[in-house]
Amino acid sequence: MSLPSLRLKANADRRLRAGHLWVYSNEVDVSATPLQGFQAGQQAILEAANGKPLGIVALSPNNLICARLLSRDIKLPLDKSLLVHRLNVALSLRERLFEQPCYRLVYGDSDLLPGLVVDRFFDILVVQLASATMEAHKDDVIAALVQVLKPSGILFKNDSAARDAEGLQRYVETVYGEVPDWVPLEENGVKFEAPVREGQKTGWFYDHRMNRARLAPYVKGKRVLDLFSYIGGWGVQAGAFGASEVFCVDASGFALDGVERNAALNGISEKLTCIEGDVFEALRELKAAEERFDVIIADPPAFIKRKKDLKNGEAAYRRLNEQAMRMLNKDGILVSASCSMHLPEDDLNNILLTSARHLDRNMQLLERGGQGPDHPVHPAIAETRYIKSITCRLLPNS
Question: What sequence ranges are listed for the domain RlmI-like PUA (predicted)?
Fold first, then answer.
């Protein structure tokens, strides 16, 4: 395969040599290699200013991040062979970590496959292609997945906003075998079914697996409130771990149908109560009804999707956590989570402390958690670390 070259400006290779994988458009020597000369989805040999090759990149010439490193060996372009190799490397980690084949198999840049996400649900694979390069190689992706994993079905869940920036259409399509609307999975010994076609993202959020496992010692015999419950990842596990009662709150009736479905799978339906509606309104109504809880889980969607949302997003996190704290019993546990990459963990910690002091309560920080190891963090790319989970204890100010 003969590939064109993409030349960097002087010294623009330092970050890449230090381990980073991204090339920004202002780092390209556009006089030597104009970006408009490339098409989205192309591969190119990345060169330092002196012409020395640095590796092969996937191109997104119209974006700020205009190229992502696929391989540091210019003899290894993205093709089925490279995909099979990278999938086997990714699989070896997940098989070491988990007894059941239910996990995120590929996490983009961190698994050296930028633009590719694969979630595994036993023998069903749900795939997201977020780059034009991966879209151009979708047949290779399918063939490599079939060779490595021999699945019974592969679903392309290509309906994310990330595709818009690449000029790609959104679609959801079964591309191999058969994929039912709800697929089974197991997490922390608890059984679930996920709505892979109609649900959020790939249908399930494996990223909080380890944090949900840590619920067990806190919820046994306790009254639990799960806010933004989706299909019960936290709430159903709390019930399975021995909670006496669990209330799940979500704006989506479809998601709450999933909660009931998953509660029934684990024989805990009698413990579960679903509340459909806006979470903030539900909190006001529960407080007015003088309801109190021993453990509250606040795991909202990203309130800060872009840096410009930071101020309003921080206010939303404070409002949510403060209202949750008001609902806690005297010796209550709050699990506060954020999937907003732009919110540093220390800022979430400060939001919790400020909220506790505003309510004249003392807070003990018990545990900090991040995303599970099937979402490995690339040490040079801060953006690959996004999950924060803080477990804290709220005590009277006395």
Answer: 6-72
Instruction: Give the residue extent of every domain in the chain.
Output: 5-71, 80-182, 207-394
Q: Which of 248, 274, 339, 392 is catalytic?
A: 339
- d(CA 133, CA 66) in angstroms, rounded, equals 12
Residue 162 has pLDDT above 90, yes or no: no
- What whole-number distance in Å separates Cα of residue 261 and Cα of residue 232? 9
* Cα–Cα distance, 359 to 353 (Å, whole number): 10
Rounded to an integer, the average pLDDT of 368-373 is: 97
In the numeric block, which tokens belong to residue 336? Answer: 């506060």
The rounded distance, in Å, linking the Cα atoms of 286 and 292 is 8
Instruction: Show the DSSP H helices in 178-221 as ranges.
Output: 209-213, 216-219
CA of residue 304 relative to chain centroid, distance: 14
Per-residue pLDDT at 33: 96
Q: What is the distance between the alpha carbons of residues 372 and 208, in angstroms, rounded to a whole number? A: 6
DSSP 8-class letter at 28: B
What is 207-394's CATH number?
3.40.50.150
Q: Is 248 a catalytic residue?
A: no
Inter-CA distances, 46 with 29, 38, 122, 333, Å: 11, 13, 38, 51
Express each pLDDT in 17-36 by its tens digit. Answer: 999 999 999 999 999 999 99
Just give the CATH number of 80-182.
Answer: 3.30.750.80
> What is the DSSP track for 180-210?
-SEEEEEETTEEEEEETTTSSTTS--GGGHH
Contact 338, 376 (CB under 8 A): no
Whole-model pTM?
0.95
- The token pair at 254 is 């479809």
